[in-house]
Write a structure and sequence with these properties.
30% helix; Dihydrodipicolinate Reductase, domain 2; alpha/beta; Rossmann fold; nine-stranded mixed β-sheet; six-stranded parallel β-sheet
């Protein structure tokens, strides 16, 4: 179980957040969302691109003492303005900088997927435990109200016992100039890590069960662009004979989760967009989209968990659980779809 006896900032009304990595997700989503939060605020940045610093200083009023690079990030340990370090880097770098943050005595928010391997995930967990800081993974969908409704249905079963599920997430990645990290296996890229954790996590939270076995296969239609998987198909076997059919892709737009039960069904489409997540059911219910900011809700709830000395909604163990299955998915895909027991 996650620990709760971690360090708590002294009587702060808002926790100071430092974003590590200033790419699209930090620039266009997290930083704007932090302007909407009640329990936390943007106080610092860590970047390897000095040219970005003046823009961030001007836009968010950041102080020079709260700006770091990857070489001096460890000095954040001496900065009381910063309570939480949010790792928003290429997947292959999550472990290194999460550990640096933990050893600096800062709480760690790690963007999904937690890390490319179970070993790396466990290293992050161990570092946070050792340093008594809280660790949470950026699975924003678990904080999203429409999603939370269908999570609750796994227990209340308004449409009877679960039978089977399907979940698909993807988008057309044009490849750009071919250098982006998401295209390349050695950097933790590929559809499965980037988009595949959405359907994987969705069928786990929609069933509230852990899979027993997996079969999978991958496809690459543009080998001139991708060294990582472009499309991955994976099927999961759950207790009670429940099956999940999943797909993720960088070749086409996909965004749907459907749960079939013995007395009806329910579906979210889209199920993992930044806005507009909505649903419908076999008896005519409409699940209307949440009007707030998903990232602001996620960060506010995670900050509140720290301030109240409570376990976060999505602890590091949740991120590790997904990566354990991802490793089995790749093992199955590399062995001609062999069934891999978990």
């Amino acid at each position: 179980m996650p620990i709760t006896n971690f360090l708590i900032p002294n009587q702060k009304k808002k926790l100071g957040i430092a974003l590590v990595g200033l790419g699209y997700y930090s620039k266009d989503l997290l930083a704007p969302a932090l302007q909407l939060t009640k329990n936390c605020e943007l106080k610092g940045i860590v970047t390897g691109s000095p040219g970005k610093i003046p823009v961030w200083k001007s836009k968010y009023g950041l102080e020079d003492k709260n700006i770091y690079n990857y070489e001096n990030m460890h000095k954040i340990a001496n900065n009381d303005d910063i309570d939480v370090v949010y790792i928003v880097l290429p997947n292959a770098l999550h472990m290194k900088y999460s550990v640096i943050a933990a050893e600096a005595g800062k709480h760690v928010w790690c963007e999904k997927p937690m890390a490319p391997t179970v070993k790396e995930c466990q290293t992050i967990i161990n570092a946070c435990r050792k340093n008594k800081v809280q660790l949470t993974v950026g699975y924003r969908m678990q904080h999203e109200p429409v999603t939370q409704k269908i999570i609750s249905w796994a227990a209340s079963k308004p449409f009877g016992e679960l039978k089977d599920l399907s979940a698909e997430a993807g988008f057309r990645n044009g490849g750009g100039d071919g250098t982006h990290w998401k295209l390349h296996k050695e950097l933790g890229g590929g559809a499965m890590y980037d988009m595949g954790v959405y359907p994987l996590n969705a069928v786990r939270y929609a069933t509230q069960m852990e899979p027993l076995a997996v079969t999978a296969r991958t496809e690459i239609s543009r080998p001139e662009i991708f060294t990582a998987d472009e499309t991955t198909f994976f099927n999961l076997e759950f207790p009670g004979g429940v099956h999940a059919k999943c797909k993720t892709s960088f070749a086409e737009n996909l965004n749907e989760l459907t749960v079939n039960c013995d007395k009806g069904w329910y579906s979210l489409s889209p199920f993992q967009s930044y806005t507009g997540v909505k649903g419908k059911t076999s008896n005519g219910q409409i699940l209307q989209p949440f009007q707030g900011n998903q990232q602001a809700v996620q960060m506010d709830e995670d900050a509140k968990a720290i301030m109240n000395n409570k376990n976060p909604l999505v602890p590091g163990e949740e991120g590790l659980s997904d990566i354990r299955i991802v490793e089995a998915i790749f093992k199955s895909a590399s062995s001609d779809g062999q069934r891999i027991e978990l």
